[in-house]
UniProtKB/TrEMBL annotation, chain A:
PROSITE patterns in the cross-refs: 4FE4S_FER_2
Listed SUPFAM superfamilies: alpha-helical ferredoxin, Nucleotide-binding domain
4Fe-4S ferredoxin-type domain: residues covered: 30-63
Tree of life domain: Bacteria
Name of a matching Pfam family: Pyr_redox_2
Database matches in InterPro entries: 4Fe4S_Fe-S-bd, DPD_II, FAD/NAD-bd_sf, FAD/NAD-binding_dom, Helical_ferredxn
Provenance organism: Stigmatella ashevillensis
Name this polypeptide is given: FAD-dependent oxidoreductase
TrEMBL record, chain B:
Species this protein is from: Stigmatella ashevillensis
EC number(s) on file: 1.3.1.1
InterPro entries hit by this protein: 4Fe4S_Fe-S-bd, 4Fe4S_Fe_S_CS, Aldolase_TIM, Dihydroorotate_DH_cat
MF GO annotations: dihydropyrimidine dehydrogenase (NAD+) activity
Pfam families to which the protein is assigned, alphabetical: DHO_dh (PF01180), Fer4_7 (PF12838)
Protein name: dihydrouracil dehydrogenase (NAD(+))
CDD domains on file: DHPD_FMN
Length: 448, 462
């Protein structure tokens, strides 16, 4: 670990996220041993197949069971460099643990995420140097954006001996992991700690506050052509853009916030209090909507989610909705925002129309009092940066187009992965895509 | 309700559950609490010239989430003055006259044996158990397992004991011998009416890998201890069956010892020839209270099997023990995997591939893939069966048994985590029953061990 860098990126104290408790805290050794010993050590296990990065789950769990903690971490991190954050943020309920053979038997599946956290967190704390980078190759790779996809790619490339330069336009690196994960899963400082560990693997430099643009007009900007010219390969880990807007009257002004923006503020802004916010409405039915609704509820706000279709059609995970409900979140189905009402500029209520099967019921609706509206109906695409690279093509939904096997874009020197390619999936998907890209970059750099 | 009381070489006991001579029978207070809890008898912690113990003195083996699968100890016989022990024994017998009080004894000289036997009987002992089994500490002094492993010495001391005693004498045997029948026969020659077995197995419990000292650790050193607990039960059952089948030893009353933890274990020991059973490790682990379940479980079991007494169960399984050469070579089993309860863990597959006969196949493979995986014999057709167990397991596939190749070894059934999912089905070979010995007698086969062994076997069977 490089202490100096860690301090450079330390989050300020007195942030709202510090008040959240871990939903799945670190196991004690006795807990981990008991859970590890419950694993059947299946052969050709479904949990491995369910993991986008293909972690050999039964093997790492067996290693925990035998006291080979370092080996367990090695097994995990060899398949997934971001094994720490994935352990905490992965929706294991629908991935590895969801496919555990115990579920087929009607038994509680193995708590794979918690075991993974136990192995990785403890090992990296005591033995961070479990991988050795190959000798320097002299190759330089630029990575645009510092979210999970870029971090994973940079770590893997650095282990191969390449020099990696990460360009991040924000002041804090880490992207979604640092700024966007629900704090009861992973706190910003934990994400930065993992990032620090990845940086320690080799020659990786993070340049924060640098924007990659088509034409640089001043300091703090670097042009795409310059980037391409000065590096042997480029990886685009752009993530997603700003929160989408509702486009209804009353939306402009205080009291209406994009969900990811609000989550970021809860995670980074010192002294942010939700003073005067007693009630909030969250618009949307996806996982971001569930996250912000759950977070607000944990902060003591009376929260209702407004979703235009039925609960069965929601995009968010059932286990997340269940958990949010336990903490007080209500779900209002078949409703559509019509207007945000203000008094003296302050949000006081929202008018909703009733829908049936997604279509408005004429004349039917309600007005709900609220102090805050959080909009979680999706995010815009970070298309500008991608378009600025010659040859990089976007699909009709604004996603960077890549060859699914190599994650190479239309520009033979540019690869991409993560949310800007898949439209918004899990951290583990970003890592899996980064692995594919790195494999192909390796072939490219080797002249194959 | 079945009668749980037993007659152990003339001594009545309210039930077959006795405490073995060990820490749980160290004091009168413990024994009385045990009798209150329901134990039928107790073998007092071995009396002799009191010793000084070391610390630590116990070591445990855990397996997975199971604590104390095995226990070992380097504790010796009683460390309390004999007068105190005898006074407490008298008190116990006075307050529990119908319970069985056994004095375990270990001394060196003939005179010491005479004296301690007399004092034990005066204290109210119903039976005397000669401790010829302890494998640590006392054997170095020429006692315990040193005696149990030396039939001539065993016979001589047992003869003294029988001569000195008015109550029946039990010889407690050590498993640390090549052939348990040698000390067993020596005990018969000495005229004792009863045996008990097994005492603990010589063992080292583990090694402290930081200090590089074996376990249990006494300062910076250790020594071998005596192994007991659930892990030694199979060894005890085998040695018990050897004695129970023996024409002379089998006529003696036998008190079974070794990893007995519940009524089912007890029933197994009794079915293999024990009259009473002695329990120690399970009590050290869970306390005297476990006897309630033992009494209830054994009683209900006897009722269900239509047996009215423990005596009816005794030795029931002994005749079914045969030498290998007497087993039926024509009997055949093959494994059957129930696709409705299979959860798709494929442990049977990997066990059969690496640990047995490569006759379990995974569906959805090409012949090439199967051969690469290590199969040399391929069935005509491997059905594609997805796991259908409740809730399903995406991607999991039900393995398939190639019945032609299956040797019926049981391994897949043993590793399957779902009870009843893999069953061993009898299949007809179309051949009449025939044992190895039958074949030898007919000159059809020869015995491993070369031509001379074959010839010898043929002569024997002629």
């Amino acid at each position: 670990m490089r202490e100096g860098d860690a301090k450079r990126w330390a989050l300020p104290p007195n942030r709202a996220e510090e008040g959240f408790e871990d939903k799945k805290p670190l196991y004690t050794p006795a807990e981990a041993l008991a859970e590890a010993n419950r694993c059947l050590y299946c052969s050709g296990a479904p949990c491995i197949q369910a993991c986008p990065t293909g972690i050999d789950v039964p093997t790492f769990i067996r290693k925990i069971g035998t006291g080979n903690l370092k080996g367990a971490a090695r097994t995990i991190l060899s398949a997934n460099l971001l094994g720490q954050s994935c352990a905490q943020v992965c929706p294991v309920e629908v991935l590895c643990a969801g496919s555990c053979v115990y579920t087929g038997w009607g038994r509680e599946p193995i708590a794979i995420g918690r075991l993974q956290r136990y192995a990785v967190e403890n090992t990296l704390a005591s033995h961070p140097a479990i991988f050795q980078a190959k000798p320097p190759t002299g190759k330089r790779i630029a990575l645009v954006g510092s979210g999970p996809a870029s971090i994973a790619a940079a770590g893997l490339l650095a282990l191969e001996g390449h020099t990696c330069l990460i360009y991040e336009r924000k002041a804090l690196p880490g992207g979604l992991n640092t700024l966007g994960i629900a704090p009861y899963k992973l706190k910003g400082q934990e994400a930065l700690r993992e990032l620090e560990w990845v940086l320690s693997l080799g020659r990786i430099e993070v340049r924060t506050g640098i924007e990659v643009v088509e034409t640089a007009t001043g300091p703090g900007q670097v042009s795409t052509t310059e980037l391409l010219a000065s590096h042997d390969a480029v990886f685009l880990g752009l993530g997603l853009g700003a929160d989408a807007r509702l486009g209804i009257p009353g939306e402009q002004g205080e009291g209406v916030q994009g969900a990811t923006h609000l989550i970021e503020r809860l995670k980074t802004e010192p002294g942010l209090t939700l003073e005067g916010v007693r009630r909030a409405l969250v618009i949307g039915g996806g996982n971001t909507a569930l996250d912000i609704a759950h977070e607000l509820a944990l902060l003591g706000v009376e929260v209702a989610m407004v979703y235009r279709r039925s609960e069965q059609e929601m995009g968010g995970y059932v286990h997340e909705l269940d958990a949010a409900r336990l903490d007080g979140v209500r779900l209002l189905e078949n409703r559509q925002p019509v207007e945000i009402l203000r008094e003296d500029g302050r949000v006081v209520a929202m008018r909703l129309a009733f829908l049936a099967e997604g279509k408005p019921l004429p004349g039917a609706g309600e007005t709900l009092p609220t102090d805050l509206v959080a909009v979680a109906i999706g995010q815009e695409r970070a298309t500008q940066v991608a378009r600025a690279f010659a040859g990089v093509v976007l699909d009709e939904r604004g996603r960077v187009k890549v060859d699914p096997l190599t994650h190479r874009t239309g520009n033979p020197k540019v690869w991409s992965g993560g949310d800007c390619v898949n439209g918004g999936k899990e951290v583990v998907n970003a890592v899996a895509e980064a692995k594919l890209a790195v494999r192909d970059i390796q072939r490219y750099l080797a002249g194959e | 309700m079945a009668d749980l009381s037993i007659d152990f070489c003339g001594i009545r006991s309210p039930n077959p559950f006795w405490l073995a001579s060990a820490p749980p029978t160290n004091t009168g207070d413990q024994v009385m609490r045990a009798f209150d809890a329901g134990w039928g008898g107790a073998v007092w912690k071995t009396l002799g010239n009191p010793i000084v113990n070391v610390t630590s003195r116990f070591g445990g083996i855990d397996y997975g989430n199971t604590r104390l699968m095995g226990l070992n100890n380097v504790e010796l016989i009683t460390d309390r003055p004999l007068e105190v022990n005898f006074r407490e024994m008298r008190e116990v017998k006075k307050r529990f006259p119908k319970h069985t009080l056994v004095a375990s004894l270990m001394v060196e000289t003939k005179e010491e044996w005479r004296e301690i036997i007399q004092r034990s009987e005066d204290a109210g002992a119903d039976l005397l158990e000669l401790n010829f089994g302890c494998p640590h500490g006392m054997c170095e002094r020429g006692m315990g397992s040193a005696v149990g492993a030396e039939p001539k010495v065993l016979e001589e001391i047992a003869r003294w004991a029988v001569a000195f005693a008015r109550v029946p004498v039990i010889v407690k045997l050590t498993p640390n011998v090549g052939d348990i029948l040698e000390p067993g026969e020596a005990a018969v020659r000495a005229g004792v009416p009863a045996l008990s077995l097994i005492n603990t197995v010589k063992s080292i419990m583990g090694v402290d890998l930081d200090r590089m000292v074996p376990l249990p650790r006494v300062g910076d050193a250790s020594t071998n201890g005596g192994y007991c607990g659930p892990a030694v039960k199979p060894i005890a059952l085998h040695l018990l069956s050897q004695l129970a089948r023996h024409p002379q030893c089998g006529k003696l009353a036998i008190s079974g010892i070794g990893g007995i933890s519940n009524w089912r274990d007890a029933a197994e020991f009794i079915a293999l020839g024990a009259t009473s059973v002695q329990v120690c490790t399970a009590v050290m682990h869970h306390g005297f209270r476990i006897v309630e379940d033992m009494l209830e479980g054994l009683s209900d079991f006897l009722d269900e099997k239509g047996m009215s007494s423990v005596a009816e169960l005794r030795g029931r399984a002994v005749p079914a023990y045969r030498e290998w050469g007497e087993l039926d070579l024509s009997y055949k089993l093959v494994a059957d995997i129930n696709p409705d309860t299979c959860i798709g863990c494929q442990l049977c597959y990997v066990a059969c591939m690496d640990g047995s006969h490569q006759c379990i196949h995974l569906p959805g493979r090409t012949e090439e893939q199967s051969r690469q995986a290590g199969h040399t014999h391929l069935p005509q057709h491997v059905p594609e069966r997805a796991v259908t167990a409740a809730a399903g397991t995406p991607g999991a596939r039900v393995p398939f048994v190639d019945e032609e190749e299956c040797v019926g070894c049981n391994l897949c059934q043993l590793v399957c985590p779902v009870p009843g999912c893999i069953t061993m089905e009898e299949v007809s070979t179309g051949r009449p029953p025939e044992s190895w010995n039958d074949r030898i007698a007919q000159g059809k086969s020869y015995v491993p061990g070369g031509l001379e062994a074959t010839e010898a076997a043929r002569r024997r069977n002629r």
